[in-house]
Amino acid sequence: MTQENKLVFGLNPELPYAIEEAVNRLRINISFLGKDIRKIMIVSSEPNEGKSFVAMNLWKQIAKTGEKTILIDSDMRNSTFSTKYAMSREDGKEMKGTSHYLSGDVELDDVLMHTDDPAGDIIVNIENVVNPSLLLENSRYEELLNAMAQQYRYVFVDAPPLGLVSDAERIGNICDGVILCVRGGATSKAAVRASIQQLERAGCPLLGIVLNRVSDSKGGYYHKYYGKKYGEGYYYKR
Ligand SMILES: Nc1ncnc2c1ncn2[C@@H]1O[C@H](COP(=O)(O)OP(=O)(O)OP(=O)(O)O)[C@@H](O)[C@H]1O
Ligand SMILES: [Mg+2]
What we know:
Elements: E1 7-9, H1 17-31, E2 39-44, H2 51-64, E3 69-73, H3 81-84, E4 87-89, H4 98-102, H5 108-111, E5 113-114, E6 120-123, H6 133-137, H7 139-151, E7 154-158, H8 167-174, E8 177-183, H9 189-201, E9 206-215, E10 221-227
Helix pairs in contact: 1-2
The protein binds adenosine-5'-triphosphate and magnesium ion (MG).
């Protein structure tokens, strides 16, 4: 039987063991953050640091444990989820996403998709827009995140990078905390510091920093997580 609003992943690559393990450690760290931390933004200073990769894999792993989790794609400038994972609806209908919902074209039911994992739901952005700032400032966005936080244990929000536009600050302002992705060997300390200040201004507590895309001795990638509980400040390896 076809499940309604079911998302199919045409491509769903398995992760190498080391990455799977690193995401698992990140998941465990997050489980210690306490029940008030529900809406978590995944962000970085610059493009291409692995935000969407971290958000997707974290969401998947947490859903696998049975904890109700939703991933909300809030990068409406440059979302690549639907193409990267060759996503489609099982019922064959045209997919609609975050920007359609926020502009009022469709209802939540048209964009909130279920997956093979009963605990893992997702809202993907399908149509990128030139200026999504207005959509993020619309109260519909804040209401969406807050409503989801009532229904799901975790709401992961994939954001555009901090450096370019103010979108991520707006999103951070609504979220309970943020995970900052840093590309190992590529992002400058100055950029990371500027991002931390930006997040402080946005009033979004830094939950931890993921050092991502670091080549290991075998030439692969892994994550490291420098996490601290909310309220204890952050730790960044200098
Ligand atoms: N830990 C990792 N291991 C292997 N590949 C990774 C890892 N992190 C990111 N990548 C790859 O690096 C590329 C950039 O990652 P991703 O799209 O997640 O970055 P992003 O920060 O979301 O970029 P953007 O700023 O454009 O949204 C992708 O091809 C992704 O698959
Ligand atoms: Mg991304």
